[in-house]
Amino acid sequence: MKLINIAKNLIGMSILFFCVSCADLSENLTGQPTTDKFFHNLTDFESFISGAYTPLVRLYGSDVPYVAGSGAEDVSTPVVRWKGFEQININSVGNPEEITDELWNNYYSSISQCNTMIQVISQNTDVPKEKLLSIDGEARFLRAFNYFQLVRWFGEVPLLTEENQTNAAQEPQSTIAQIYDQIVDDLKVAETTLPDTHDTPKRPSRWAAKALLAKVYLAMAGFPLNETSNYALARDKAKEVIDKKMYRLENNFFDLWLWVNRITNSEFIFAIYASSDNGTGSYVNRAVRPWDHGENGWGDWTSDKRFLENYPEGDSSRLKGTFYLTMIDGTSWENTDYAQPYVGKLRDGGAKIGGYYDAAISSNGDGFFCMLRYSDILLIYAEAANQAEGAPSKAAYNAINEVRERAGMANLSNLSMSQFDKAVLDERNWELAFECNRWFDLCRRHILKETMSVYYPDAKIDDHNYLLPKPNDQLSIMIGLQQNPGY
């Protein structure tokens, strides 16, 4: 296919996804770029791939992924129309597509941009190919990231690549195994073509690709694939990142979540950044604040007081960065209108940059959302090593204890395989709260019912609850798409 036709084909894609991403192009163009206007130099390619991040900023700067995973212990929402997600009874929600549409459309919008980039690079004649290897790797990393989210939220979905996306409406949904195979293939390319480092975590390095691959292998080892041989692969890939010694835990957990440290902290491996200056701002900083007591927020979602009540004793250092328990005017969270503990991690942001407690907030503000950080990799290693080896090794203990020490907690020792496994899952719950991890941990370990029945004893939780319903508008367009069971 000629490059000149790519724009025409992508216009057809917008009918399917309704929100195909617009790149932050260096020229004032309308529609997608064509070869007579674009793709003549390296800057053109870099400008185009930057557009693949825009849907992700839009998504993680909103309520959507946090509410979608609110069936785990860490997140609660007072919004009545979203309660079905929290109570693991999505069929009780009046319109779950308010959430599922945004997940589906934004991930696929980013995928579309990546597919186009990969195709353009393969047909490029103006720029030496060796100069485009890293951008090709970036597109494959982002495509893998997007499919990793889609397959965990929705299960079997259409696997659209540069080879078939122009025929999207006719493509059948792929199996979960096929989607994971594509994810692994893309990340294996990315870890060899991405640069060793970037100036900021907002552009993936080869170590980000390795870190994401470790997380993917860990997911593949669990439900629904249950390919337990992947525990060893997850262990080994996480060890590569650990042994590189490029990342380290910040001494102060609280400092991780300050806007002023968003680029310079030593722990972020891959992060997404929103800015009030460029039209891709975030409102999460406002959504996690209550409206009263000087906070001027919306209180769209909070933590759950039961989650806070179960927080481990002695974990005062991590608790301060995780939760926000005293309002600007000194009021305790128990005496706010919502009477729930609030989220500290995503609080620092807004149109005006200030301190952590700055009340200058905006619905189109600054924000940052960490997708991969070093403590996650340490805990992936600990869990995967224990599962692969049948007992916790010294290295596995070292990994989890490094995370616990930063939180101010005592080291673990002399645990059985099952005791250590539970300890790691618990540690992930506390360490990675509100970062879109706990829901997926409950699902991949197939412990959703036994864990959440304590919170919602009347919920009829079965295997259909592990996936979200696919959006009805996509079912009406895509010939081969089938609704997930139970919806």
From TrEMBL:
Keywords linked to the UniProt accession: Cell outer membrane, Membrane, Signal
Name assigned to this protein: RagB/SusD family nutrient uptake outer membrane protein
UniProt organism field: Parabacteroides segnis
Residue ranges of domain RagB/SusD in the record: 362-487
A Pfam cross-reference name: SusD-like_3
Signal peptide: 1-23
Domain spans labelled SusD-like N-terminal: 92-218
Family under the similarity heading: Belongs to the SusD family.
Signal listed as a keyword: yes
Source taxonomy: Bacteria, Pseudomonadati, Bacteroidota, Bacteroidia, Bacteroidales
Principal localisation: membrane
Location of the protein in the cell: Cell outer membrane
Domain of life: Bacteria
Keyword Isomerase included in the entry's annotation: no
